[in-house]
Every structure is written in structure tokens, then in C-alpha cells.
Amino acid sequence: xxxxxxxxxxxxxxxxxxxxxxxxxxxxxxxxxxxxxxxxxxxxxxxxxxxxxxxxxxxxxxxxxxxxxxxxxxxxxxxxxxxxxxxxxxxxxxxxxxxxxxxxxxxxxxxxxxxxxxxxxxxxxxxxxxxxxxxxxxxxxxxxxxxxxxxxxxxxxxxxxxxxxxxxxxxxxxxxxxxxxxxxxxxxxxxxxxxxxxxxxxxxxxxxxxxxxxxxxxxxxxxxxxxxxxxxxxxxxxxxxxxxxxxxxxxxxxxxxxxxxxxxxxxxxxxxxxxxxxxxxxxxxxxxxxxxxxxxxxxxxxxxxxxxxxxxxxxxxxxxxxxxxxxxxxxxxxxxxxxxxxxxxxxxxxxxxxxxxxxxxxxxxxxxxxxxxxxxxxxxxxxxxxxxxxxxxxxxxxxxxxxxxxxx
Length: 408
Hints:
Strand content: 15-25%
Low-confidence stretches: 1-11, 345-353, 402-408
Largest sheet: 5 strands, antiparallel
Strand order of the largest sheet: 1-2-3-4-5
Number of helices: 12
Order of helices and strands: EEEEEHEEEEEEHEHHHHEEEHEHHHHH
Helix content: 40-55%
Distance between the termini: 46 Å
């Protein structure tokens, strides 16, 4: 079984890609790629995140925090920001050559009515809805998907299954998208990836394969499903464990007490109890244990599953916020073109040479007015995104406690 190999273009210098770097009036790094501007905006927790703006003509040194919107991933250092900028520039250059067509198509998707459609090619359409989205393939296109990955419904959601479409039709995607697709399939469907590439993935190369190996190896072991620092025993952690780490109120659970320093070294899939060393704990239940037990009986969930759900919810919020901004820009452009066309016998087009500075001013006026009209929705989504980001960061810090202590 084979598929077209991932292509890697020669890395171009930023100036060759039309990238301009600078520092904003507020002191954070910014960059311009044609009409797109990117910024490394400081977050409240001391880190930074990638934000963007569009069609701002002022000097980079004159831009402020209020000019940027969106949240496109956390950035730990400026070098990471510069890498993302160059990567985005290469992606945009390749994307412009693909000539995808955006349109409005009346269609009911598994995620709701389509609000915006992008036609990649005949029979390959990406739909966006208010909350989610994904690809729809025609019957003729879907039959070309490898059987090991093919879906009978012909719908492929945007979180992970989009990678199946990119794998099947690589010429319709950029180099960046193809690399992301390869990584997604490797982590989500390791068996399919191995069949496609004809080699076995080593430990550490696929999250799903590593998790399945861990679960097979420790199916009969006690694995911690809940833990809290002990208030009665210094430097100890009280834990609840079940066989195989199963979270179900019907399975047997036991309480153990383990050194906090040892518990901090746990891996990504859980802490395995060694019955010869870790003592059963028969101390009194605190209110926190009673609450935890009641919660598990009602809604058992892994913290890693919880993190995954939180990240998925955050992606949907980003998606929704980005959709609103695009709807505003599309509407503003249409209004500007319509008004100018009335005075120019409808020969005026934004993509043509007749798009002038006055057109741009009119376009920005419409963007400002439409943004003001939808300010309630934009503010609510922005605040929601900030809350989700703080919650995700807090949970990541808890789950990554071991790595942080080892680095220290």
C-alpha cells in the first residue's frame, strides 16, 4: 500500500517570501505578509500567543494590541514566532497557487447547516458551520480513499479526519498542510500510517500507539485515576486506583498513598501502582474524596480526556471567532464593491487594478461599522477564548508537573 510522498520545498529566506518583521508600539514582535499581519501578543500568564490582523496599512511600529484579534496558538519565544511567520508565508504562497473557490452552498452537514463552503476541486468541498465543519467527498472521490481510512458517509470532520482527504489528494494541499496531515494520521491512526509507509512506528512516534501499548501492558495493574496531596501526611499523595485505569463506578477501586516526588514522575498515560512498595491507604475520607467519588460515579472521565475535550472546545471557539471576522470582511468587501460599481458601471472589481486607496478607506469603514454592530458577539467569544485558554493552561500545568520538575 502506498501514497504520494510528502514533498518538502527548499526553505526560502523571509525576504524572498515578502515577510517584514518589526516591533509594535506596545513593544511586542509583529510581522507583515502582504495583507496579513501577525503578532506575538503577551498573555496574562506571562506567555504569549499568535494573533492576526488584515489589511492594515500603518507602519508596524504604529500597531497596537487593539489592532489584532484571534488566538492561533501559544508561543514560548520570539524564535518560535518567526518560524511560524515564515511557515505562514510559504503556506500562503502555495495556497494562492491552488485557487480554491469560496462559495455559499445550501447543504446540511453532520454539524449543522453550511455557512461557508470552499471548493478544492470537483467533488471535494469543505464546509464551515456555526460550530464545526469538515469535508464532503463525492462518491467518485470517496472511493479513492484508502479502504483502511475510508468512511461510508463521505463526511470527514475538520479536527482529524481532514487529514485523510489531504493524504488522498495531496496536490490540493500546501506543503504545510500535507505535513500536518501526515502527523495527524500518525498520531490518530498509527496502524494505517504503518501500512501506508511500510514500516513500524517506534515508541514515542505515535501518541495513540503508545497509549494502546501502555493499556495492554498494564491491563491488570492498578493505575491511578484520581489523586490529591495528602493533608495528613507531609510530602505524600493520596490516590485512587483501578485495574487498568478503568473509570467506571461499577469496578473495584482501591486507595493508596505514594510519595509526592515519585507521583510527580508519572507518564502521560497514568501512574502505575507497585503493590510491593505502595501501601494501601485506609485513612479517613475527606470531603474532597467524597466529592470526587460522587463525581466519578456520575461522570467518570480521564483528565487527559478532559484536556482533549477542552482543547476541542477551544478550537471550536477559535473557529467561530475567525468565522465572524471573515463574515464581516466578506460583507464589508461586498458593500464597498457594490457602492463603487454603481458609479463605475459595475466594472469595478477588488482583484482588479481599479481598487484604489479610497476603496480601501470605504472597505475599512464598513469593517468598523459591522464589527461595532457585532461587538457583543465578538467580545463574548474573545472572553470565552481567554477563559478556555486559562483553564487549559492550568490543567496542562497540573498534568505536566513531572516534566516541569525534571527540567528544574
